[in-house]
From TrEMBL:
Basic residues bias locations: 107-125
Region (Disordered) location: 26-57, 93-214
Ranges of biased composition (kind: Basic and acidic residues): 93-106, 165-189
InterPro entries: Prkrip1 (IPR009548)
Domain of life: Eukaryota
Residue ranges with Acidic residues bias: 136-148
Species name: Cyclotella cryptica
Protein name: Uncharacterized protein
Length: 214
C-alpha cells in the first residue's frame, strides 16, 4: 500500500451507505435562490476504526516518541534530584565551616580579653606600688591555651650543678644504676635470674672502662 493511496471501506451497494443526490447535497433542489443556499453539511463519523482494527504502520513511531518523552522526563527528574543533593551537601559544608570559624574567632576574642585584663591588672598593681615577679609577668603576657610537651628523658639529662655531663657519662650512670637495682632485687643464691644488659651498644665500652679502672 502506498503512502498517499486511499481505500474504499464500503461497497457502493452496501446497506449502511446513504444515497444522497447532488442537488440534495448542494441544496439546489430546495433553495429558490442561489443567495439562500447554505453550506454543504456532511455526516460526522464518530468511529472511523472498528473495534477489531489492528495497529497501523505509524503506531511504532507513536510509541517511540512517547517513550523518548518519558525517558527525557525521568532524566530531568534525576538531574534535578542530583542537583538538589549537591546543593544540600554544599550548604551543610558552608554551615560547618562557618561554625568552625566562629569558634576560632570566639577563642581568639577570649584570648585578647585575657591579655587585656592582664595588662590592666599589671598596670593597677604598678600604680599601687606592688612589684611583680619576672616569671609572673612572663606568665601573664604569654597566656595561651596550647599544651607544651616536655619529655621525661630530657628532664633526667638536665645537670643539677654547673658541671655539664657528656652523653657517655649519662649512659654509663644509667646502666650502672640498672645493674645495682637488679642486683639488690635478686635474692641470694638465685643464679637463675638473668642479668639485664643494655641493648644500645654501650656494654662493651662500659666493660672496658671497668676493667681499666680495676
Amino acid at each position: 500500500m502506498g503512502r498517499y493511496t486511499t481505500v474504499q471501506a464500503y461497497a457502493d451497494n452496501s446497506g449502511s451507505m446513504r444515497a444522497v443526490s447532488y442537488d440534495q447535497a448542494t441544496g439546489s433542489a430546495t433553495a429558490a435562490k442561489p443567495a439562500e443556499r447554505g453550506p454543504v453539511v456532511t455526516e460526522k463519523v464518530d468511529n472511523p476504526y472498528g473495534s477489531t482494527a489492528g495497529a497501523g504502520s505509524g503506531e511504532f513511531h507513536v510509541y517511540r516518541h512517547a517513550r523518548a518523552r518519558e525517558m527525557a522526563r525521568w532524566k530531568e527528574i534525576n538531574a534535578n534530584e542530583a542537583e538538589m543533593k549537591a546543593e544540600e551537601e554544599f550548604q551543610k559544608k558552608i554551615a560547618a565551616d562557618a561554625r568552625a570559624e566562629q569558634e576560632k574567632t570566639e577563642k581568639r576574642r577570649r584570648k585578647r580579653e585575657r591579655e587585656k585584663n592582664a595588662k590592666k591588672r599589671k598596670k593597677n598593681l604598678k600604680l599601687g606600688g606592688v612589684a611583680l615577679d619576672v616569671h609572673q609577668e612572663d606568665d601573664e603576657g604569654n597566656d595561651t591555651d596550647e599544651f607544651e610537651y616536655t619529655p621525661v628523658a630530657s628532664l633526667e639529662m638536665k645537670p643539677t650543678s654547673g658541671v655539664v655531663k657528656s652523653e657517655d657519662d649519662v649512659t654509663d650512670n644509667c646502666d650502672h644504676r640498672k645493674m645495682e637495682d637488679s642486683t639488690h632485687s635478686r635474692p641470694k643464691g638465685d643464679a637463675s635470674s638473668p642479668v639485664e644488659f643494655p641493648s644500645d651498644g654501650s656494654f662493651p665500652e662500659r666493660m672496658k672502662k671497668q676493667l681499666a679502672s680495676a
